[in-house]
Amino acid sequence: MSLNVEVELGVNYVSTSGGRIPFIIRVKSGETARFRAPLSLAIAIDVSESMRGHKLEMAKEAAKRAINCLGEKDILSLYAFSGHVEPIAENVYVTSKEWFKYHIDMLKIHAFTNLFEALNRAWRAALKSPQNYVRRVLLLTDGQPTVGERNIEVFSRESGEAFSNGVSIVCYGIGEDYNENILYTIARSSNGIFRHIDDPNQIVEHFVYDVSQMLSTIANNTTLRIIPVQGVKVAIYGRNYNTVETIAEIPIGGIEANTAVEVYGELFTPPRIEGVYRLASIELVYNDIISNTQKILSNIAEIRTIYTANSELLSKGVNKTVIDRVLALIKTEEISQAIARGDTKTLTAKLEEIGKTVMLDPAKTQILKGIGKILDEYSKTRRLDTKEALYLTMALQQGKTQVLPERNTKDKSI
Question: Mind listing the pLDDT tens digit for each residue in 12-26?
Fold first, then answer.
């Protein structure tokens, strides 16, 4: 198993008076998984009254199809939640898929929605597995929390604790009535995924796709470390990260086979005399799936630049694509904040700014098309689809290069 790191800079030269250097760091896995770690998966399905009918039937089918992807060494926990959480199975090896499917078919509708308890029970169940397991949660809902905890900060802390224990959460918001701010917060804090799906027929496709990706994980609990030299500061955009002294530690989580994950940020450099300088070294820490050991790839890449007082060099050595993409990530932070406070004016302005960004990556092109559709609908109806906007925002922030299958016209999830 091999991981590689590539660095792209927005500028090749920096002024002797100091400046800022936009960058994209790309962590790449260049192989197909020859061996996979077993998966500890918890699935929590909303069975509140609003799920009655087609939505619940599609959620059941999605769960059963996801189970088909699993093997006998995988561990599964199943929960149905309404006003309370009903454990269908907890930490059971998948030796009888038909047993799980039978109990899924028996799920019944109940009143109310306790989303926080479902989150709490599901990730803690996924955690109860041997150390070498990949730990993930699928959390599906179509409504607002009506009982239990509703404070978004509490959801953030809970899902952050899940991630600190190696559990990432995929959140599915079905329809138009769920709380996108809560699901986005859960996904971002756990380094997971938030999906907005307005066509229940697409639930199956996304469950199967996401579980298949989990099963191709080749490195887990991955952290990228940017270690700057004295005087240089690091800023990361679109991701939660920690600064330990001057070192930026960016949790990436699981990395699947044949995938690249991009991290966007800037270096802020102090004044220096002309010359070539090393600004930072890059280190990668991860759990190797094959050996079940933590590995550290020290100095896997470096960031260097040329200080100059030559204005012609400063103006020519520019990579506009990198600069635009980093600026877009800065704006995603403003978008999520605008959605949280209901600021339509700022939201539309930032979406328009991102929509003008040139991104050559096919996955990013899909996202930009989605933003264009949101703005077009808003210009015609004055209705702003904040759920889709927040989903596309997170898709940009995740920085993954894989492109999902084309959607039908009803589905809003990429």
Answer: 999 999 999 999 999
